[in-house]
Each structure stands twice: as C-alpha cells, then as structure tokens.
C-alpha cells in the first residue's frame, strides 16, 4: 500500500508530525514502512503562465511560447505537443539544476532563443504522469506565476510505501491508514463534508429499476447521472502516479482515485447496456452461489461483484449516462467462492478479497465531490440499493485479561479510547468489562487475543516494559508429557548404542509397499496431491523408508549404517499408530586397531543386543509376521510383557540385493507396547546366591524356546534366573544334541545349603525329563 503525506493530511492533521515521527509510528503500529521518499523540487523551478504559443518557424514539432514566470515574460521553445492546451506549467528557469545535474542554460533552438524549459513530471524527479509536459491546475493549490513549484505541499510530497499483512485490508486506502494514525497519534480525524452541488434530475426510479434474485450476500448501491464533459485534474494524475495506480482515461482515473482514497469499490457502467425493450435501465443482480453475485443486463453477465467487469459494459470518457456502482462483499466468502471457479479477476479483486470499506455512502459521496469539481454532471435523485443484514461480531473485553496478555496494566478507559478510534462500537458491561462490536471492515478480529494485538499496536510495542517471563500456568503432568519423556529417553538410548536418528516423510511409495507385502491405504482415502511421485501414499511401515536411507548412505561409501526412526504409520482406513523401527547394515563397528581394520559384519546376536539396549528386556519367539523383508530362517517375534509387539529379522537376501546394500538386520516395534508400566518394588535377598550348570541331551529338533517354556513354568521361589550357555551337536550324539543351561539360585531367608541346591536342581531335571524327554549328560 502506497500513501502520501499530503493525501493523508486531508483526513488527519499532520502539520505537527515530522516524517521521522511518521516512520516510527507506522512501524510501531504494524504498518511496516518499506520505503519513505521525500520529493524535492529543484530551486528556480516556478509556476509559469503561458501568454502565447506559436509554431516554430523552422520546426513542425516545436512551439515558441511566451511565458510569465513572475519576474518577467520569457520566451521558451517547447517540443511537447500538449503545450498548446496548457495555461499554467512548471518552468525550469535559467540556472535551475534538475535531477541528473542537468543545468538549465540559455539556448538557441533552430535559430530561436529559449530562456528555460517547460517541464514534464519525470524531468523534475516526480513520477511519470504521461506523455508531454505537466498541465497544472488549482487542484494543487492557487496558481501564481513565479511561485516556486516546490512550495506546493501536494507536489513536494512524501511518498510512503507500507508493507501490510494479509489481514489488514482495512488499510488498503488513504482513509484506513489515516484512521490507524489517528489512534496511534491521538489526533482526531477530519470529518469529510460534502455539500451536494450537482444538478438534480427526477427520481432514479423513473429511469431505472433493480430486481435481485437469490440470497444476496453483497451490498450494492447504484447512482445514475448524465455527464457532458470531464476536465483533467493534475492532482489526480500526479497522486495516482505516486502510488503506482494505472488508469486509462479521466473517468477511470477519478474512480481509481476515489477507491484508493476511501477503500470503497467503485465501478462505472455505460447505462445504455442495461436498457431493456421498454427503454428502462434494469439492473439484475443474481446470486449464483454463496459469495458469487453476477450483475446482469438484458440477461447478459456484465460483471461479478468484487471480481471483474466486462469491457463492453465499462463507462469511458465518452459515456454520456453513467451508472455508478459501489459494492461490498465479505472477503472470506468471496475468496472461497472464487477459488472454486476459473473466473478472471481484475485489479479491484485484490482490494475486495483483502477487505474493502463497507461504507458505500462515503465512497459515493467522495466520488460525487470530485465529479462536482471536474465534470459537468447532473444526477438523478436517490439510489438503487441492495442492503444485506449482517451481524457484527462482538468480543467481550476484560481489562484484567487484556493486561495479563500484554504484560502491562492498561486502564479500561484507554482500551475504550483506542478501540473507538479504530472504529469499534463499545457497550459497557461494568467491572472493567466491555463488549467491543467489531466493524465489518475488520473481519479478521475474532477473539480477545486479536483485540489485545490492536491495543499493543497502538500503545507501541516499544512502550511496553520488558519483564522476565513468568510461567503462570500450573505444571500439568499427564499421558502426553509422559509419552514425550519416554520418547526422548528411547532416542537417547538409541544414540547411546551407536544408532543415528533418521527423519523421513510419513509418505512412501505405494508400489514398494505392495511389492513387499505391506498393507496400503484404501484407494478412496489415498493422498490426493502427493508431494512427489515416489511419495504417493501414507506409509504402513517405516522400514522401507529406512532401507532407502541405507541405500543412500551406501552410495556415500558408508560401511556401518545403524539407523532408527520413531513415527506414525497408517492402516487401510488411515488409522494411525506409532512404531519404533531399527535397521543396521554393514559392519558392526568402525575400523580400528582392536579389530586390525577388519571389523565383523552385523549378526543376529549383535543386532538383538543393540535393540535390547534401547527398548529394554524382551523375549524372542518364532516369527509369525509375513512380509517380503523378513528372512525365513533368521527372524523372530519380539515379546514384551507377554505380548507380541513387533519383529526382528535379517533382511531377506533378495531385498538386500535389490537395494544394493550389505548384510542388514531390521526390527519394528509397536511404540505403545514399549511404554513402561508401573512396577511394584520387590525385596532383594541379602544372602549369597549360586550359579549351577546343567547339561542335558535332548532331541535335535527341539529348540530352546520349548525348553525355556518348561523352565519358566516352574514355580520355584529360589530359582531366580535361567539362560542357555552352550549347545553342542556331534555325530556320536546321533539325532540328539547337548544343551547346557545355567541357573541362578538364591534364597530370601537363609544361606543356601547343599540340600537346598540339590532339591531345586532335582525338580528342574524332573521337569525336563517329563516335558522334554531330556537325559542327564
């Protein structure tokens, strides 16, 4: 948004406010200044009055002008074609130094003496106002020959470019910016006064009618007038150039100027396009959908409110009868409606979609005041209106809560004053509590936090005393915080045993998941717009992503690749759960002196030990999972607290080959099953325990898992622990094998005697003989 100082001054008195103060204020209230440019007109550039203008005797494109420059009449040769239409111009006299160090000197052009230069705007450092020289008029002030051109405040202006956030559509106008300044500087706004001067014709209803269809959600006001001629306006041209607004023609310039000033969306139609077979102007707004209002004339769409206008319906400088439209529509409703269509939008859509001024009467009155001054216009009495009943949002504001949010005590009176200056209506509710009625031009205000932001803006963030942060909320320890701490603990353990954390998208490649036998999301629930072709579905396992990470690391010549990741996986109906996944590929450790530079490759035992160091104690039982990554002979279910919670396996050789990676082991566990539960403390024996080994011969086909089930089922208080230490097979044993199991025996009540140990070992042997057909070796 670009504004100028003199333009703002029409709504708020800035005579006692310096540019530096303006700069600081804008930044303090959230209207960040992108640039501030003070225009300076060179000395000896004055207002000149053209007394005569004749063709150059020896050049068709030159004119010889006699110009009164105050100190006398000067003869100046001018090459601009439009000089013949000018009475007052800007003249650079002899000795003036223009931008670019261009010094004005006495000259002779095609044999004719010239004592100065008639200036175009760009030659004086002003924005380009179009071809030719500037033709001045009293829109910039009373014109007096010889008066320094730089003494006109509306010319030697300050141009300020503001960076607005998306929610500040209320400041997309001079009036809106002035309103914010009024609150920040505590300066009353100047009232806009318009006394109607235009010739009044008969009532508008005699010539025009308005009939709307559907549920309207746009306010529309129409004024009808006849117009004979439009005068040029130098100030309009200059200011539109200063704020980088382009408009073709005098009428379009006036409309653009009024819109930029007031924030009201104004369009002008050639009324004849609305005239029906009865020669009556018939305007037909039709609600096609919520937020989508079409304006029809003779059943033809001539515009869409807030979006665009057909060129054939747009009035121009030659139009003799105008139908001027002022409109307002809620920006949120409009944007939502337009996003579902392929409609073309014009320049006014930007303002409408950000939030226009809903005060349509103000916009029409301001335009009328301009038309009175620079056109020969006759208006029909009254207007055709569509007014939508809208409820204003109301926010209950408690001064104590505002003070708590801001961190500084703010009196209710100051809050009321600020909000009123910003256009809010205030209803008192007593006890430092008010109801703030939000104006429609601040559609972004929803909650007390938004009100707090407005108060902070106007007070100024730099005026709020810095205080140390105080965490006023009570500490809340719950399942969420517990889960966070457990996650952090698991990650720390994983890093402690040499794993690196991998972070990947929650997406994966559907083809890979299907290839390796993992479930996939139902087609109806699939990702609509994948971020990449290879990430086209929600993952049902993290292992595929980890294997891709291993593949990348191998390509970087890494020889030991231990990775883990904790994250979400999804089922067919997008049901979400959380898992912890591990992968270890290549060497079990780095090359060093201890291993003579030849470290061993990762194996089942080493991988199991590392996973156990992260997740804690678990049991391994024959694997029941089925997917393409699992090795058929080196895999197992992981059991925690008696429940299967995942699997651990060597990577299937064919998968290993397809990924082009070395020997690899994988594991994936349900995270919820790993969360620790409350465990009651148990007493520790103060008596010494003993270790006893027992070697038995059992059937070769019987695995230790079956033996362990028998041993774990024994209810022997003194048997504290049991684990295998040796398995031996030999031809002499035939279809048998030798198994050595180590037992830890300890009493809670006394020092063990030989008879106690023999009793326990005897019961163990009896169970093995009975259940496993074991023989003492």
Instruction: Indicate the CATH topology of the largest domain.
Output: BirA Bifunctional Protein, domain 2
How many helical stretches?
19
State the end-to-end distance. Answer: 94 Å
Kindly estimate the percentage of residues that lie in beta strands according to DSSP: 25-35%
Second rung of CATH, namely the architecture of the largest domain: 2-Layer Sandwich
What level of helicity do the residues show? 25-40%
* Gross morphology: elongated
Can you walk through the features of this model?
- This protein has 777 residues and is of the alpha+beta class.
- The protein has six domains: 2-39 and 159-185, 2-Layer Sandwich (Phenylalanyl-tRNA Synthetase, Chain B, domain 1); 45-156, Beta Barrel (OB fold (Dihydrolipoamide Acetyltransferase, E2P)); 199-228 and 263-386, Phenylalanyl-tRNA Synthetase, Chain B, domain 3 (3-Layer(bba) Sandwich), CATH 3.50.40.10; 394-460, Phenylalanyl-tRNA Synthetase, Chain B, domain 1 (2-Layer Sandwich); 480-674, Bira Bifunctional Protein, Domain 2 (BirA Bifunctional Protein, domain 2); 690-776, Ferrodoxin-fold anticodon-binding domain (Alpha-Beta Plaits), CATH 3.30.70.
- The chain is 25% helix and 30% strand.
- The protein is built from 19 helices and 39 strands.
- Strands 27-30-31-35-34-33-32 form a seven-stranded mixed beta sheet, with helices on both faces. Strands 13, 15, 16, 21, 22 and 23 form a six-stranded mixed beta sheet that branches.
- The termini are far apart.
- The mean pLDDT is 90.
């Amino acid at each position: 948004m670009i504004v100028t100082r003199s333009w703002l001054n029409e709504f708020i008195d800035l005579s006692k406010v310096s540019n530096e103060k303006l700069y600081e204020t804008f930044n303090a209230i959230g209207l960040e200044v992108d640039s501030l440019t003070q225009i300076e007109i060179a000395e000896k550039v004055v207002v000149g009055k053209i007394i005569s203008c004749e063709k150059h005797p020896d050049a068709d494109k030159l004119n010889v002008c006699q110009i009164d420059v105050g100190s006398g009449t000067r003869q100046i040769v001018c090459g601009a074609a439009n000089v013949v239409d000018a009475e007052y111009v800007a003249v650079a006299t002899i000795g003036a130094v223009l931008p670019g160090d261009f010094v004005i000197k006495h000259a002779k052009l095609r044999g004719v003496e010239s004592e100065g230069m008639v200036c175009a705007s760009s030659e004086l450092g002003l924005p380009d106002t179009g071809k030719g020289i500037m033709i001045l008029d009293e829109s910039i002030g009373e014109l007096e020959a010889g008066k320094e051109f730089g003494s006109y405040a509306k010319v030697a202006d300050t141009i300020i470019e503001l960076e607005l956030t998306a929610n500040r559509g209320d400041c997309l106008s001079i009036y809106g910016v002035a309103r914010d300044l009024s609150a920040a500087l505590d300066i009353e706004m100047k009232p806009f006064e318009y006394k109607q001067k235009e010739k009044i014709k008969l009532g508008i209803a005699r010539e025009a009618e308005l009939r709307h269809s559907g549920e309207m959600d746009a306010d529309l006001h129409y004024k009808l007038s006849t117009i004979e001629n439009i005068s040029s306006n130098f100030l309009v041209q200059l200011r539109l150039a200063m704020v980088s607004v382009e408009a073709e023609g005098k009428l379009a310039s006036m409309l653009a100027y009024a819109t930029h000033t007031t924030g009201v969306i104004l369009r002008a139609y050639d009324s004849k396009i609305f005239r029906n077979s009865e020669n009556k102007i018939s305007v037909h707004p039709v609600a096609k959908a919520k937020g989508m209002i079409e304006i029809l004339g003779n059943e033809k769409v001539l515009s869409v409110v807030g979006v665009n206008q057909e060129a054939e319906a747009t009035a121009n400088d030659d139009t003799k009868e105008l139908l001027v439209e002022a409109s307002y529509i809620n920006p949120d409703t409009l944007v939502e409606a337009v996003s579902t269509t392929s409609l073309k939008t014009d320049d006014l859509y930007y303002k409408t979609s950000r939030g226009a001024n809903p005060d349509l009467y103000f916009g029409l009155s301001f335009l009328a005041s301009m038309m009175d001054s620079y056109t020969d216009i006759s208006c029909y009495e009254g207007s055709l209106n569509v007014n939508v009943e809208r409820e204003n949002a109301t926010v209950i504001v408690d001064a104590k809560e505002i003070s708590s949010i801001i961190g500084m005590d703010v009196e209710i009176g100051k809050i009321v004053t600020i909000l009123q200056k910003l256009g809010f209506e205030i209803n008192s509710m007593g006890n430092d509590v008010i109801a703030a009625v939000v104006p429609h031009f601040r559609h972004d205000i929803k909650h007390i936090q938004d009100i707090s932001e407005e108060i902070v803006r106007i007070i100024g963030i730099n005026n709020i005393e810095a205080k140390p942060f105080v965490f006023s909320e009570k500490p809340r320890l719950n399942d969420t915080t517990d889960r966070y701490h457990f996650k952090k603990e698991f990650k720390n353990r994983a890093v402690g045993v040499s794993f690196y954390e991998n972070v990947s998208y929650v997406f994966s490649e559907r083809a890979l998941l299907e290839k390796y036998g993992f479930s996939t999301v139902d087609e109806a629930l699939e990702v609509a717009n994948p971020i990449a072709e290879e990430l086209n579905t929600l993952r049902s396992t993290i292992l595929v992503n980890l294997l891709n990470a291993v593949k990348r690391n191998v390509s970087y010549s890494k020889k030991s690749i231990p990775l883990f990741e904790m994250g979400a996986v999804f089922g067919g109906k997008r049901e979400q759960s959380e898992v912890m996944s591990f992968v270890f590929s290549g060497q079990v450790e780095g090359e060093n002196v201890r291993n003579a530079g030849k470290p061993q490759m990762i194996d089942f035992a080493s991988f199991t030990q590392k996973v156990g160091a992260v997740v804690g104690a678990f049991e391994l039982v024959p694997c029941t999972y089925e997917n393409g990554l699992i090795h058929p002979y080196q895999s197992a279910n992981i059991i925690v607290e008696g429940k299967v919670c995942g699997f651990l396996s060597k990577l299937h050789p064919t998968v290993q080959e397809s990924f082009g990676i070395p020997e690899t082991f994988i594991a994936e566990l349900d995270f919820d099953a790993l969360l620790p539960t409350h465990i009651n403390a148990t007493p520790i024996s103060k008596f010494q325990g003993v270790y006893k080994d027992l070697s038995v011969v059992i059937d070769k086909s019987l695995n230790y898992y079956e033996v362990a089930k028998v041993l774990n089922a024994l209810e022997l208080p003194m048997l504290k622990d049991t684990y295998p230490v040796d398995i031996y097979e030999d031809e002499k044993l035939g279809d048998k094998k030798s198994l050595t199991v180590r037992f830890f025996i300890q009493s809670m009540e006394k020092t063990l005697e030989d008879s106690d140990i023999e009793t326990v070992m005897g019961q163990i042997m009896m169970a093995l003989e009975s259940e496993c057909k074991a023989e003492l070796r």
